[in-house]
Amino acid sequence: MLFGREDAPATLHGAFNGYNVGAALAVASALGIFDDVAQRAVADFKGVYGRMEFIQRNPFTVVVDYAVTPDSLRAAYGAF
Fold first, then answer.
1. Which of 5, 43, 75, 9 is nearest to 65 (CA)?
2. Per residue in 47-75, is it b (16+ CB within 10 Å) or e — as a string?
3. Could you report the per-residue pLDDT of 2-52, keeping only the tens digit for each?
4. Calpha distance 53→64 (Å, rounded)
């Protein structure tokens, strides 16, 4: 089975999160974890504190991200 970034729940922002979810699902499959169990875990995952974390949405949006390298900053900025 192939997994890709489209497997990421809508609560996770950015293509990099989609790639991470795809990789996690592939590893779960390789370890023999049933697809429905892995998909449920992904659906329930709320993200990592400080990584593309929405702190406020109104009257303006505030997002916290601990990206520190040039590549991670590009990925975070590109998510928006």
1. 75
2. eeeebbeeeeeeeeeeeebebeeeeeeeb
3. 566 666 776 777 778 888 888 889 999 999 999 899 989 988 888 888 888
4. 5
pTM given for the model: 0.70
Backbone angles phi, psi at 50, to 5 degrees: 85, 0
CB count, 10 Å around CB of 77?
Answer: 11
What residues form DSSP beta bridges with 56? 62
Asked if 9 contacts 24 with a C-beta cutoff of 8 angstroms, the reply is no
Tokens matching residue 2: 């192939």
Q: Which residues touch 22 (CB under 8 Å, ≥6 apart)?
A: 3, 4, 5, 7, 8
pLDDT at 22: 87
